């Protein structure tokens, strides 16, 4: 199925290239990712690659600090441009529903990506490209339990993001434990200190989940500083250079890869083709989850933080 999907995307891309000069779509991508989150750098790379491959005119926008009220304003500004398509992430429907519905009401085709799969259709988006987050978290919890992990904690750097809440809840359910989520900031040193304080106060903790590189990277540093690297079953969502190194040296047992390059790339291709000839996929597309471990880390090592 994965090979079939990739073939379809490649075929659509080749068609888009052939007709880009005559059917150039204007597309705006608005995400909630902050400028400091390496995860979103991969999404940016994907959006740029899709623009180059299709010939579409694509603008990527985001609130530098991840402020969702600012993101809502960016969506409203995009609507005023009347683009041929709009791509949005939906970490908090309470804040973002109104501008997304306004885009749909204005006749702008909207595709949601990354977060918001549960509300995407309700808000009028034509499809969603992302990972079923609860299922991914549950898979991580089950894997952690199978590796002997228990007394788990989930460090969440975006507690407002429903997708990350689903990850933590799924992790707890996969472990067969009550949800134990600790909210952390997005500052490296602050997160590291919070992890050290938590682990010192809760020495029986045998399982950790970090829901993204923003939280995972400082947690790696905390465990290494405490001398507990490899003693705790530690899983991370998404990939980045520090996570790859953590898997190689045994600090991180696995990473859950939602393949965010696809989340940035596919919506642009779909909206370009929709503008060109009105075609659309019949369903949303799951971009993950996939598990990266020592067994397959070499396959993704060179692309981590760039296309993986």
Describe the structure in brief.
This protein has helices at residues 2-19, 38-54, 68-80, 93-105, 133-146, 162-175, 188-201, 213-226, 241-249, 260-277, 297-301, and strands at residues 26-30, 57-61, 85-88, 110-114, 127-130, 152-156, 181-183, 207-210, 233-237, 254-257, 285-286, 290-292.
What does this structure look like?
The protein has helices at residues 2-19, 38-54, 68-80, 93-105, 133-146, 162-175, 188-201, 213-226, 241-249, 260-277, 297-301; strands at 26-30, 57-61, 85-88, 110-114, 127-130, 152-156, 181-183, 207-210, 233-237, 254-257, 285-286, 290-292. With 308 residues, the chain is α/β, with parallel strands linked by helices. Strands 2-1-3-4-5-11 form a 6-stranded parallel β-sheet, with helices on both faces. The chain has a 6-stranded mixed β-sheet with strand order 7-6-8-9-10-12, sandwiched between helices. The radius of gyration is 19 Å and the shape is elongated. The protein starts with a helix and ends in a 7-residue tail after the last helix. Residues 1-5 and 13-21 have low confidence and may be disordered.
């Amino acid at each position: 199925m994965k090979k079939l999907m990739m073939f379809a995307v490649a075929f659509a891309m080749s068609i888009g290239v052939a007709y880009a000069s005559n059917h150039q779509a204007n597309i705006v991508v608005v995400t909630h990712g902050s400028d400091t989150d390496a995860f979103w750098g991969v999404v940016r790379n994907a959006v740029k690659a899709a623009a180059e491959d299709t010939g579409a005119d694509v603008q990527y926008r985001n609130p530098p600090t991840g402020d969702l009220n600012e993101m809502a304003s960016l969506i409203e500004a995009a609507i005023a441009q009347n683009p041929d398509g709009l791509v949005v992430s939906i970490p908090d429907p309470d804040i973002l529903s109104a501008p997304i519905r306004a885009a749909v009401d204005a006749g702008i085709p909207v595709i949601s990506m990354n977060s918001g799969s549960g509300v995407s259709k309700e808000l009028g988006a034509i499809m969603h490209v992302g990972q079923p987050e609860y299922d991914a978290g549950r898979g991580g919890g089950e894997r952690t339990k199978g590796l002997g992990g228990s007394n788990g904690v989930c460090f969440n750097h975006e507690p407002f993001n429903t997708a990350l809440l689903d990850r933590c809840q799924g992790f707890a359910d996969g472990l067969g434990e009550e949800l134990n989520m600790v909210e952390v900031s997005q500052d490296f040193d602050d997160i590291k200190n919070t992890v050290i304080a938590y682990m010192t106060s809760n020495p029986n903790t045998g399982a950790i989940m970090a829901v993204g590189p923003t939280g995972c990277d400082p947690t790696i540093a905390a465990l290494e500083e405490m001398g507990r690297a490899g003693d705790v079953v530690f899983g991370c969502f998404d990939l980045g250079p520090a996570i790859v190194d953590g898997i190689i040296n045994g600090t991180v047992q696995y990473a859950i890869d939602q393949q965010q390059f696809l989340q940035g790339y596919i919506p642009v291709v779909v909206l370009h083709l929709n503008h060109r000839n009105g075609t659309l996929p019949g369903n949303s597309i799951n971009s993950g989850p996939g598990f990266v471990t020592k067994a397959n880390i070499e396959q993704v090592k060179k692309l981590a933080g760039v296309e993986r």
